[in-house]
Design goal:
This protein is α+β, with helices and mostly antiparallel strands. Helices cover 40% and strands 17% of the residues. It contains 34 helices and 23 strands.
Length: 948
């Protein structure tokens, strides 16, 4: 599906000094020390068949990322045939001639690959995976086989199955997601019907259903060929060894027909365009969109900066005025999506309860008009520039995947033909000034150049169509695209490449010390990039909520960044964005966290902010009232989100009134009655060094970490007696029944079976995780292969244990088509029973073990991910060498232990089936399953009397 693309780049040595200055003269910032950034020494060449190859060698981790871009997207589609590129994003995972049906992801999971996916955007489609470096040849085999040998297995049955899956994705991501229909309408207004950006990337139901086997095969042969593709490979590789392998696997694939570059001039908007879209939402939204210069063209960077200043962060103009000062908006989000034919800048502003869209629009216009008339200030430009450049550098942490190094190389290659375009890209932002951003506002953001969409509460209008009869295309004769001789010559591809010598695992064991006040400090050093991540964890999660006051922990955590005794909320936001960062604070079930990531040149500034918000929150009455209104509005919005309603109802059903019964937002009644003293008392009781840990990851040495910890946290002391968070008792297992949450007109049913799970400290953690991988944790799991791949009921199905300090829930389910709610629930319980009666096999266990073992290094790829994993050591009281010893635990699990875990921890008779959907259409089919009595609850989880 289409995703917002954030350009993330990796600088070369020639621009390092320029980056660290960040336009110092204009920014009026203090000079900073020299940044230590890697040299991006890539190599680009082309095979005789036209395939472009980009290689980047980096041995920081024993991983290699493969990122293959086909230069095809909706930009190449025609009216009435939209969604083909996205459809192929799915078809490409269905299996090719030598790999086998539905085996592509199974091979990757067995190899321990992470970031296995594909995405489609208007201008391109990409396929990517990050593998242990000894599995590189496997990745080349898989990608080359689906490039060259997909058509041999592409038949009507697979097309019909994936049409169902794609349409389920549309129901889930467009029709079932609040405000998504308005996002689609925005593009309908900005572009004429004959423009390739008019239709949603995913396509319409009618066009997806109209896809015929000859159409899709012709589309593949024209665009999915080596001369229309670029493969970028980054990481732990040897260019001398990899080049013969690339030639071996991709060289024999014949070039396809020449693909002409799309030449189209996007019309300018000269008159304001407007639309009103009714949706199943509680709060109205006003969206404004403008066309801005194409990607990496003059004016593109200035438009990026302008939209960031307008509404890209908490110090932005729209946020400060509409959310913070006037409190008429619940949220503000502005982004500039850079594309080949024209970029699209959009601001989405969601109203607070009782605020009409006309009032929002008037307030938005005032801020936009002022920025157009008077331009931004120098500090505003500097903050926006620092945020955007920090994002670029942070993007280097990932080798591949969406936005990683390999993807960045492909991005520049796609749009300007130069993977090394980064110096020029950075120069665009460095050269931007308050004057140039002002000019961009005047050129691109005039009232007559925009589209305005109101989203209002009302009946959602969905243009669905019937499924294609099974007889359509059934008699179409398919021909092999290659000669028999060529096919015979490629028989060697049936042999799966052997893995190389396994790389040595280097899983982190953090350095740990304790301050004199009892605060624990964990450090994982990583000097590959000039980045740090610092986070304070406190045992102050929802499990510690006072009785009868759910949401206290979440409300308290939210207040940390809303002003201290030294800084106001706006000062905190401005100081964070001045160093290109965002300060976050939130509470989960088990802990509260406050932290941020930034360039290591700003380490002291990071510690100043984090320590101040944790140690000195002000809890000002005016800020409490503002956040109270924000949280009440958020509770209203939860009713719009089927998944949120599902989780709230499921956990309320399992845990009654216990600590795990409510999400961190609490309840409307509790938020309304929460007092300042409640928040202060909670903070006093639980925010103390004895209850806390400082988790550090990145460009820090142990002496530096100790100095910073002592300086900024050493004098912190609790003002009252520390009350450690209690661990909730395990509730009784429920009796099986069905709970329906009525959502009239819902295009899908959000369906999940809930049961009582386990604590994170359970000695059965490893066998349960491996068993669940087989059941529903992996793409190739039993539940997903049944509900998605076999039956086409859903875009994706799963099972998961939510491990907590106490026994968290177990859940398994999917978002399914309304008309198959009954069959999907039947198949779900069939698999929950089958894991007990048809126990996991040795082959299934090996796949789960291989994935668990080989994917471990990839879980530490970013500093944020490392920080989260190391933080778990503190929250769940695990030893510091836990991850170093985890591989041995995975590899030593016996099949008998997996089967025992299935029998012990999967109890279908003690699961509550929650269904959020159109009751009128789903109640009968669910009752017919005889899974238990049916009861009705509202989106808060409270019982509802059935009308007589």
């Amino acid at each position: 599906m289409r995703q917002p693309f954030i350009r993330k780049t990796a600088p070369v040595c020639a621009v390092l000094a320029a980056i660290l200055g960040l336009h110092l003269e204009a920014a009026q910032l203090q000079p900073v020390k020299q940044l230590k950034l890697p040299v991006l020494a890539y190599e680009k060449y082309k095979l005789p068949n036209g395939l472009e190859v980009i290689l980047y060698e980096n041995h920081r981790l024993p991983l290699v990322a493969i990122d293959l871009w086909y230069h095809v997207g909706p930009m190449n589609e025609k009216a009435g045939r939209t969604g083909f590129a996205h459809l192929f994003e799915h078809m490409m995972f269905e299996g090719s001639e030598h790999v086998g049906e539905k085996a592509h992801i199974r091979y990757l999971e067995g190899a321990g690959a992470t970031d296995i996916n594909g995405t489609t955007d208007f201008d391109r489609t990409n396929y990517f995976e990050t593998l242990p470096s000894n599995q590189l040849e496997l990745g080349l085999w898989l990608e080359s086989d689906r490039m060259g040998f997909l058509l041999e297995t592409l038949d009507q049955a697979k097309l019909a199955n994936q049409r169902d899956v794609v349409r389920n994705e549309r129901r889930q991501s467009v029709e079932g997601r609040p405000y998504a229909l308005s996002e689609e309408k925005m593009f309908h207004l900005l572009f004429p019907k004959d423009h390739p950006y008019y239709a949603d990337v995913i396509g319409s139901h009618a066009d997806i259903e109209a896809a015929r086997i000859r159409d899709v095969r012709d589309f593949f042969q024209h665009y999915y060929c080596p001369n229309n593709a670029t493969i970028a490979i980054a990481g732990d590789l040897d260019p001398v060894k990899i080049k013969p392998l690339i030639e071996k696997y991709f060289g024999p694939i014949p070039a396809g027909p020449p693909v002409e570059k799309v030449k189209l001039t996007t019309r300018s908007i000269t008159t304001e365009l407007r639309a009103v879209v009714p949706d199943s939402v509680q709060l109205p939204r006003v969206s404004m969109g403008w066309l801005t210069p194409p990607a990496l063209q003059p004016g593109d960077a200035d438009a990026d900066l302008a939209i960031q200043i307008l509404g890209g962060g908490r110090s932005s103009r729209l946020y400060r005025k509409l959310v913070y000062q006037d409190q008429i908006a619940q949220s503000v989000n502005c982004e500039n999506e850079s594309l080949a034919l024209a970029s699209v800048a959009v601001c989405n502003v969601t109203a607070r309860p009782g605020v009409k869209p006309e009032q929002l629009e008037t307030a938005m216009n005032k801020e936009i008009d002022d920025l157009r008339a008077n331009g931004p200030t120098v500090p505003e430009v500097d903050r926006a520039r620092n945020v955007l450049l920090t994002r670029k550098i942070a993007g280097l942490q990932r080798l591949g995947g969406f936005g990683g190094v390999a993807d960045m190389l492909n991005y520049y290659n796609q749009y300007v033909g130069d993977p090394g375009c980064l110096p020029k890209d950075i120069e665009r932002y460095q050269n931007a000034t308050a004057v140039s951003v002002h000019q961009a506002m005047q050129r691109f953001f005039a009232p007559n150049q925009r589209a305005v969409v109101y989203t209002v509460p009302g009946k959602k209008v969905i243009e669905d169509v019937p499924r294609t009869p099974a007889t359509v295309d059934a008699d179409v004769k398919l021909t092999n695209p290659y000669s028999a001789g060529f096919e015979t010559a490629q028989e060697w591809r049936k042999t799966v490449p052997a893995a190389g010598a396994p790389p040595k695992l280097h899983l982190p064991v953090p350095a740990m010390f304790t301050l004199g006040n009892g605060m624990k400090v964990y450090l994982v050093e990583d000097h590959a990039l000039p980045l740090i991540h610092a986070e304070v964890l406190d045992l102050a999660g929802s499990e510690a909520n006072p009785s009868g006051k759910p949401g206290t922990a979440g409300f308290t955590a939210r207040m940390l960044t809303q002003g201290t005794t030294q800084r106001s909320a706006t000062q905190i936001a401005e100081e964070a964005e001045r160093i290109g960062a965002e300060l976050r604070a939130n509470a989960t079930d088990d802990a509260a966290a406050a932290g941020m990531g930034a360039l290591s040149t700003n380490t002291d500034e990071v510690f100043k902010l984090v320590s101040d918000v944790v140690e000195h929150p002000a809890f000002q009455d005016s800020e409490i009232e503002r956040i109270r209104r924000e949280r009440l509005a958020a509770l209203v919005q939860e009713a719009d989100q089927p998944v949120q309603a599902l989780l709230r109802v499921g956990e309320k059903t399992l845990y009654g009134e216990g600590p795990y019964a409510y999400p961190s937002t609490g309840t409307t009644e509790a938020v309304k009655t929460m007092t300042r003293q409640d928040l202060v008392n909670f903070w006093t009781a639980h925010y103390a060094p004895q209850n806390a840990a400082l988790v550090l990851a990145g460009d820090l040495t142990a002496p530096e970490a100790r100095r910073l910890a002592e300086t900024y946290f050493g004098s912190w002391s609790a003002s009252g007696e520390v009350a450690p968070a209690r661990i909730p008792q395990t509730p009784d297992a429920p009796q099986r029944r069905i709970v329906i949450v009525d959502k009239p007109g819902a295009p899908q049913t959000t369906l999940a079976a809930f049961g009582v799970g386990l604590s994170r400290k359970t000695p059965d953690y490893v066998p349960v995780e491996l068993m669940n991988s087989i059941l529903g944790g992996l793409f190739s799991s039993r539940i997903n292969m049944n509900l998605r791949e076999k039956n086409g009921f859903t875009y994706g199905a799963f099972s998961r244990y939510l491990f907590r300090r106490g026994a968290g829930p177990f859940l398994a389910g999917a978002q399914v088509r309304t008309d198959v709610t009954g069959p999907a629930a039947r198949e779900l319980f069939a698999e929950l029973n089958r894991i007990r009666t048809d126990p996991p096999t040795a082959a299934e266990l090996k796949l789960a073990q291989d994935y668990a073992l080989r994917s471990l290094p990839g879980q530490f790829e970013t500093l944020r991910a490392s920080s989260d994993l190391i933080g778990d050591l503190f929250v769940y009281d695990l030893p510091v060498d836990y991850y170093r010893k985890l591989p041995e635990q995975y590899s030593s699990v016996a099949l008998a232990a997996i089967r025992k875990a299935a029998l012990k921890y999967v109890q279908p008779s003690n699961l509550v089936l929650i269904a959020v959907g159109d009751r009128a259409k789903i109640e009968g089919p669910l009752q017919a399953l005889n899974l238990g009595p049916v009861e009705l609850r509202d989106a808060n989880g409270d019982p509802v009397e059935s009308p007589q």
